[in-house]
Amino acid sequence: MKEADQPQGKKKKKVIKHRVAMPEQDPEVRIRNFDEVPLGYTPEQAQAEARRCLQCKKPKCIDGCPVAVDIPGFVDLVAEGKFVEAARRIKQTNCLPAICGRVCPQETQCEAQCILGKKHDPAAIGRLERFAADYEREQGLVELPPKAPPTGKKVAVVGSGPAGLTVAGDLILLGHDVTIFEAFHKPGGVLMYGIPEFRLPKRIVEEEVDYLRRLGVRIELNQVIGKSITLDELFDEEGFDAVFIGVGAGLPRFMNVPGENLGGVYSASEYLTRANLMKAFAFPDYDTPIVCGRHVCVIGGGNVAMDAARTARRLGAEEVTILYRRSRQEMPARAEEIHHAEEEGIVFRLLCSPIEYTGDERGMVRQVRCQQMELGPPDESGRRRPVPIPGATFTLDTDLVIVAIGSGANPLLTQQAPGIKLNRWGYIAADQRGRTSRRAVWAGGDIVTGSATVILAMGAGKTAARDIHHYLSNPDAPWVEEPSAQEVASSET
Amino acid sequence: MARILAKSELAPKIHEIVVEAPRIARKALPGHFVVVMPDEHGERIPLTIADFDRHQGTITLVMMVVGASTLKLSRLEVGQSFYALIGPLGKPSEVEAAGTVVMVAGGVGAAPVYPIARAFYELGDRVITIQGARSRELLFWTDRLAAVSHRHIITTDDGSFGRKGLVTDPLREVLEEDRDKAIGCVYAIGPAVMMKFCARTTEPFGVKTVVSLNSIMVDGTGMCGGCRVDVGGQTLFTCVDGPEFDGHRVDWDLLISRQNIYHEQEACSLEKYLQQFQGEHAT
C-alpha cells in the first residue's frame, strides 16, 4: 500500500483482502422458483464486512454515489452493530435503500471508487446498504422522520418509478403536498413491472411505497397523464404549483426484421410485465397468460436481457440462449447479472444478430436465422461496431423470442404537452436541475436520458426535488433554463 | 371510482355495464377505449367505450364473456367496483362530414359502433347501419342504432331475424346502389374475420373503410408492443396508433393469428375459474 492510499484514521487497520461472501440460493434450486437469489447478510456477516472499510478521511465512495449517501458513516454504524441508525443515516439522502442495495450497479459507482478495491475486493457497500434497510424493516423499527410544517404548495409527480418516488419522498419531508399519478394499477414503475421478483421482491417495493404513503404522499393509480388528465389541467384545474415528469422511456424497440410479429416474439417489456406485474408466472391462479418456451432466445446483452432470460428459465425453458451482436467485453449488463445467468445455465452466443424469424401454420415462431458478426472500428458509443461476416449465418430452433434491445421515448404524454421541448430522439430536454422548457415543469429519469439505471433516475429525482423546493420558495423568480447536462458534458470535452 | 351503477345482460354472455368514471367520461370521444381489470388477479382487458355521459360522469361498456377475467367482470354486482379502470385510451374516431356513411356492426361490435354512428348522425350525415349477429337472441341495441340511422339493415346468420346471411351481402348491395358516389366512408367493427371480409367487399369500390381492431394488449399505453399490427407493411401499435385503421391496409391474417396466441391458456384459466366458482357455491 502506498502512503497516499492509507487511511488517515487513528490507527492503522489490518487490511482484509476478501469481502464476506453473501449466501445465495443454489442455482439448481432457484431455477425452479421466483424467490430472491442472494439471501442477504446475517448481522455477524454484515459487521465483519463493515469492519473491512478503511474509513477514509476523504472518502471517494460518496463521489461515486449519484445520491451522495454518507457511506463511511453508515458502514461505521453497521460495524458498531448500530443497524437501525445505519439505515436512518442512509435514508437521510436515499429514501429507497432496500431497493438500491439490490439493484444499483455499485461496481461502477461507489464500490469502483473504494480504495480497498485498488488491490483487493472493494467494501461490499451495496450488500451493507441492503442489510441495514432490511434489518430496520424486518425488525419493525421503521420510523417516520420529522416533516417540515405545511407550505401549502401542491406538487404533482407523474410516474411512480424510482425518479418519481424520490421526488415525492424528498418534497413531502419539506412540507409540500405531493400527489403521484401512476398509469398502472400498482405503484413502483419499472421496480414493479420490469425487475423480476427474484432480483427485487415486490413486497419490498410495496413496503417502500407504503413508507411514502405514511409520510403523506397521495398516490392516484390508473391515471394516464396526457389522457385522463392533461398537463394543463394539472395546473389549471387541479391546482398544482409544480409538476415533475418521471414516466420512464416506455416505448419498446424492435429490430424490424421479417417475422418479428409472429406469436411468441415479445418485447422484453411485454414479457416482463406479464411475468412480474401481472404475475403470469402464477397462471392460472392469475388470469394473465404467457408463452412458456422450451427453446428460448433473448436478443440483447443488457440487464433487461439477463432478467428476461432468467425469468424464461424459471418458467420451465429447457434451453435459454442470449444472442448478442457484440462480444462479452461490450455487454452492458452488470457482471453480477451475467454471472448469475451463467450459473443458471443460460447460453451466451456472442457476435450474432437475428435477421429473420419463421413460424408454423398457427403463426407461432419456430426458428430464428442469425447473422454472424465481427468487431470493426469503434462507433460513436466508443464500443467496437459489429459488422456482418458475409455469408456466415446459422439457424436455431426456438419457440419463444424476447427482444431486449432497449426502449425509446413513449410520446403519449409529450405529444399532449405543448411547450415542452424534446430532443431529437423524442426525450424531454431538461437542464442540469431537471427544468424543462415549460415553467414549473421538471423531468428526470429515462424520459430525459433514455434507458439507464434505477439509481441514476433517483439521482435526477433528487436534483429536481431540490430545485422544485427552491422554486416553490421563490415562485416569482424568472424561469431560466440552464444548459442541459449533455451540453455541459460536450462543452467540457 | 369505477363503481358499477347499472348492469344488464343484453344477450347471452353479452353484458352492459354503466360505471362511474367522471374523469374518463369528461374526455371520452367515439372510438376511445379503456382498460379494465375485474380484480387483482385479473387480466387487463381493453374495451371500447360504448357510450358516455359527461353530465352524470359515467361511461357504458359492453363486454362479451370469453375467458376468466371477462366472466369475473360480468359477475361484479351493482355497487361493486372494478379493480382498475384506465382511459380514455387510443385515438378517437375521425368524425368529419362524409356525406353518407355506412356503419357495419358485427355481434358485440354494435356497442363501439353506436357512439360513432351517433356522431355522424348528429353531424348531419346520412347514416346507413348494417347490424349482424349469428342469431336473433344475440342482437342488442337495435333500437339505439335505429335511432341514429337513416336506414337500419339487420342480418342474422341463421335467418332468425331480419335478412338471412352475412353483413357483407347488404354491404355490397348498398355500395352497388350508390351510383352517385355519396358514400364517403364505411366503418366496420366486429370480429376480425368480419372486418376482414367487409374490407375485402369495399375494396373494389374504392371506398375508405375504417376498422377498429381488438388486439391483445397489456398496458394500453404503448409500453409493451403486444398489440402490434401490420398496416401497409408498417408495424403499428393498436393501443396508441389506433385502434382504428384503414381496413384495406391491415394484415388480417397476422391480426387473427396474434389474437389466438393464448387460445389454450384462456380455455385453461376459464375452466380453472369455473371449477373454483362451482366449488365455492356448492357448499
Described by the principal axes of the CA atoms, the overall outline of chain B is globular
Helix/strand-derived category of chain B reads: alpha/beta
**What's the CATH superfamily of the largest domain in chain B, by name?**
Nucleotide-binding domain of ferredoxin-NADP reductase (FNR) module
Work out the number of β strands of chain A.
15
Count of alpha/pi helices of chain A: 17
Into which percent range does the helicity of residues of chain A fall? 25-40%
Task: Explain the overall architecture.
The complex is a heterodimer of chains A (493) and B (283). Helix content of chain A is 31%, strand content 17%. Chain A contains 17 helices and 15 strands. In chain A, helix 2 packs antiparallel against helix 7, helix 3 crosses helix 7 and helix 5 packs antiparallel against helix 7. The longest helix of chain A has 20 residues. Chain A is globular, with a radius of gyration of 23 Å. In chain B, the strands form three sheets. Chain B has a seven-stranded mixed β-sheet, sandwiched between helices. Chain B has a six-stranded antiparallel β-sheet with strand order 1-2-5-4-3-6. The longest helix of chain B is centred in the C-terminal third of the chain and has 20 residues. In chain B, helix 5 runs parallel beside helix 6. Chain B is built from nine helices and 15 strands. The relative contact order of chain B is 0.13. Chain B starts with a strand and ends with a helix. The model of chain B has no long low-confidence stretch (mean pLDDT 93). Chain B has 283 residues and is of the alpha/beta class. Chain B folds into two domains: 86 residues, Elongation Factor Tu (Ef-tu), domain 3 (Beta Barrel); 157 residues, Rossmann fold (3-Layer(aba) Sandwich), CATH 3.40.50. The chains are: A alpha/beta (493), B alpha/beta (283). At the A-B interface, strand 5 and helix 12 of A face helix 1, helix 2, strand 6, strand 13 and helix 8 of B.
